[in-house]
Amino acid sequence: MWWAIVLGGGSGKRMQSERNKVLLHLGGESILIRSVRILANHVQGIVVVIRQEDHAEASACLDKLSLGIPCLLTDGGLTRQDSVRCGMQLLPPECTSVLIHDGARCLVDGQTIRNVQASVDVYGTGIASTPVDDTIKVVDADSMVLSTPNRNMLRAVQTPQGFRLDLLVQAHRKAMEDGFVGTDDASLVERMGVPVHLSEGNRTNMKITHPEDMERARFLLDREIRPQFRIGHGYDVHRLVEDRPLILCGVRIPCQLGLLGHSDADVAVHALMDALLGACALGDIGHLFPDNDPAYAGADSMMLLDRVIRLIRTEGWTPANTDLTLIAQKPRLAPFISSMRENLASVMGIPVSCVSVKATTTEHLGFEGRGEGISAHAVVLCQSISGH
């Protein structure tokens, strides 16, 4: 039977936080909860080791989870090693193997955990690790280089670290008798002469220690949970008046009436821009291009569309396709549809085949039917850009 011990006794000093860093929130929930949640999918019970002063907050967070397995809480010790021993005291007699995990490594993935467990099943030990890319130097007290180890023989060690429980208990008992304090549990097992096997970890399984680590973790988490596609809808309407040009999708259409607006009043492009901004949760054109700003008086809406496209791409999105419907009793728009599609495709940077523009009437119903105005509906699909 597998259990996990999650260590959450950090003070938050290096994080420059007054709170325990594992209780800080990342993506809507605490770092501790994220660690517990992923481990719960792979073990039959969990012991959380945390400072006494953090018990109430940690307990409240854990109570909200429906893990379906026991989750116990206990005080930590003065050192990491002491805290692990405190956790082991709560393990039930049926427990045969244990994962020791740093609660600050809340981005650990299921495959890394399974790799550790598979290693324990074969070797009795399993330590998540990754190859070292940097050249490592061994230095003296004056930072003078003593040697350069072969990095092919080096590994960066992570958690979880997995062990047969009897082996880990023996290693901790021996270390306590000898007054030895190691940097991790694997070092306690190593000093008994027991071979320790390293399993494959993941570079995203980072330990959150410093403020900049939180920013990197947010980026990695956003990439992990970010949907590949988003849908947006936009709607706009403009009044038809005399002495104004009629411009739709950047195409100037011969007509006695044109659309009234602060800019060129391209109702089709306005609906499309709102759909794009809506898909990416970036507000709307009224916020981005206020109609009381002289800078946008008579503005070319196709140029504004280009700005919107650039904006959503900086946020990691790009349009995949769009479907635009124009609603007007007159003039007849069918002869201009092809040019409209080409204009939009050019600015959006997608094939014409991914741009649909349709025109319909209302059978003389409503303000469109009475020739008082033109409205437009736009639907867009935005796709996540690789690397964001």
Describe this structure in words.
The protein has helices at residues 31-39, 55-63, 80-88, 110-123, 165-178, 185-190, 211-225, 267-279, 285-288, 301-314, 337-348, 366-369, and strands at residues 2-7, 25-26, 29-30, 46-50, 71-75, 97-102, 125-131, 138-139, 145-147, 155-164, 198-200, 229-242, 246-248, 251-253, 257-259, 317-327, 355-360, 373-384. The two termini are 40 Å apart. It folds into 2 domains: 2-225, Alpha-Beta Complex (Spore Coat Polysaccharide Biosynthesis Protein SpsA, Chain A), CATH 3.90.550.10; 229-384, 2-C-methyl-D-erythritol 2,4-cyclodiphosphate synthase (60s Ribosomal Protein L30, Chain: A). The radius of gyration is 31 Å and the shape is elongated. With 388 residues, the chain is an alpha/beta fold.
Q: What does the secondary structure layout of this molecule look like, with pairings?
A:
Blueprint: E1 2-7, E2 25-26, E3 29-30, H1 31-39, E4 46-50, H2 55-63, E5 71-75, H3 80-88, E6 97-102, H4 110-123, E7 125-131, E8 138-139, E9 145-147, E10 155-164, H5 165-178, H6 185-190, E11 198-200, H7 211-225, E12 229-242, E13 246-248, E14 251-253, E15 257-259, H8 267-279, H9 285-288, H10 301-314, E16 317-327, H11 337-348, E17 355-360, H12 366-369, E18 373-384
Parallel strand pairs: 1-4, 1-6, 4-5, 7-11, 16-17
Antiparallel strand pairs: 2-3, 6-10, 7-10, 8-9, 12-15, 12-18, 13-14, 16-18
Helix pairs in contact: 8-10, 10-11
